[in-house]
Amino acid sequence: LHMGKTMKEDLTVVAKYINKLYPPEFNVFSIYAELYHNYFASQAKKIAESHLEDKDIYLLLSWVHNFYPKNMRKDHALAMELDKVKLGSLLPSSLSKELENKYLDSEEVTVKNSLSRCLDKEIQRWKEDKEPEKLNGHFQSELLGIFVIQSIYSSQKRAEDISKAVGEELSHRLLKELPAFLRSYRDAFEDFREKSKKHRYYKPILIANINNCWNFR
């Protein structure tokens, strides 16, 4: 953040005041921009090659794909001058791709584990002597239906905020996880339906789960 702010503010000064003090052939703005970019890129590369936590990988990818090219380089005071300078990405494509794969692998596992825990909690609730919650007057499991959908949606949204390509790849992966989760859900529900007919709230639980199917569709 400090490097980004410094680069943006300094280049704005160069564009507004310093550039016009030199003949055009000196390419003063281009020189400044390339030096700042090269230093920023070297620091980003150093960070990328160190041991990073998942949240750090996400933040670094956000800088590479989003903050740096869109927020900084498209700033109204700099865009026209920066369009003349071919600065490239903050990271080499191979290193960027490696981080993207790490992020996607981690996010896929996180969502998968989250869905599994959610189903375990839901199965535990079926065993309790408790009537399901009502949503808009209908029996429904807010935990299962809404939580699962929000988990997948928010994960996709975070990935899309990095880049469209990363978002599409994660969506493709999660579309494989969702059917697997739904199969586990169906098997658990069928088991409950067959073995728990004497449950005090057997019928409301059945209705709640049938109503969940509409959300999942």
Q: What is the spatial order of strands in the main beta sheet?
A: 1-2
- Large-scale geometry: elongated
Briefly note the structural class of the backbone: mainly alpha
Report the average pLDDT across residues: 91
How large is the share of residues in beta strands?
A: under 5%
User: What oligomeric state do the depicted chains represent?
Assistant: single chain
As a percent range, the share of helical residues equals over 70%
Count of DSSP strands = 2
Cα end-to-end separation: 42 Å
| Spans of at least 5 consecutive residues with low confidence | none
Order of helices and strands: HHHHHEEHHH
Gyration radius (Cα, Å) is 26 Å
Total domains, how many?
2
Query: Main sheet?
Result: 2 strands, antiparallel
Q: What's the helix count?
A: 8
Pfam families: Sec6 (PF06046)
InterPro entries: EXOC3/Sec6
Protein name: TNAP2 protein
GO molecular function: SNARE binding
SSE layout and pairings?
Layout: H1 2-18, H2 28-48, H3 54-72, H4 79-82, H5 93-127, E1 134-135, E2 138-139, H6 142-162, H7 164-195, H8 202-216
Antiparallel strand pairs: 1-2
Structure notes:
The chain is an all-alpha fold and 217 residues long. The protein is 76% helix and 2% strand. It has two domains: 1-91, no CATH class; 96-215, no CATH class. The chain has a two-stranded antiparallel sheet. Strand 1 (134-135) and strand 2 form a beta hairpin. The two termini are 42 Å apart. Pfam families: Sec6. One of its GO terms (cellular component) is exocyst. It comes from Pomatorhinus ruficollis. This is TNAP2 protein.
